[in-house]
Write a structure and sequence with these properties.
Blueprint lengths: L1 H11 L5 H15 L13 H14 L5 H14 L2 E2 L3 H12 L9 E7 L5 E6 L11 E10 L2 E7 L3 H7 L7
Antiparallel strand pairs: 1-2, 2-3, 3-4, 4-5
């Protein structure tokens, strides 16, 4: 009986696939570009496909999700630049570190600023056993208020937001 309850609980969990996450990221990027794709839900439906088709005609790539991701991920890399503002670097590191289990263990690499102004990079931190967990990509939305930087970090959506240079807070 217990196994049946466990199996039922697993079946009732929401199913999220990599395709859903990429579909969601594509929809957010299309929204950033000004297209109407409806509510971003991860399902590449007619509105999303039409927006991909329209954008592919503007930028000369095949009208597929894969080509869309390839086009915008290469643009994000080409148009990014290393971070050089020391006060911004310090603020980003402090904000991202607070999201880790052990903030004092944070190691950073590959900090860069995308064309949209987003900050992306990789962070590694220690888990509850004191071992490093491996570098993971993060994205941070930054804005300057007076002489102070405001940073909103995202570790969960960092990979897709950095891959497609999706602006946090714009969707």
């Amino acid at each position: 009986m217990r196994n049946f309850a466990l199996a039922l609980a697993i079946l009732l969990l929401p199913a999220t696939t990599f395709a859903d996450e990429i579909g969601f990221a594509i929809q957010l990027k299309l929204k950033n570009l000004g297209y109407d794709v409806g509510e971003a839900d991860g399902v590449v439906g007619p509105k999303t496909r039409n927006a991909i088709l329209e954008d592919s005609e503007k930028h000369s790539f095949p009208p597929t999700s894969e080509a869309f991701v390839s086009h915008y991920s290469s643009m994000a890399v080409v148009n990014s630049k290393p971070l050089s503002d020391e006060s911004l670097i310090k603020t980003v590191k402090e904000s991202v570190s607070k999201e880790l289990r052990d903030p004092s263990s944070a190691l950073f690499r590959n900090l860069r600023q995308l064309e949209s102004g987003q900050i992306c990079g990789e962070v590694n931190g220690k888990n509850g056993f004191g071992a490093y967990t491996g570098f993971q990509t993060f994205a941070a939305h930054v804005s300057k208020i007076a002489d102070f930087w405001s940073v909103i970090p995202s570790l969960q959506l960092g990979p897709v937001f950095c891959l497609l240079d999706i602006e946090l807070g714009k969707h």
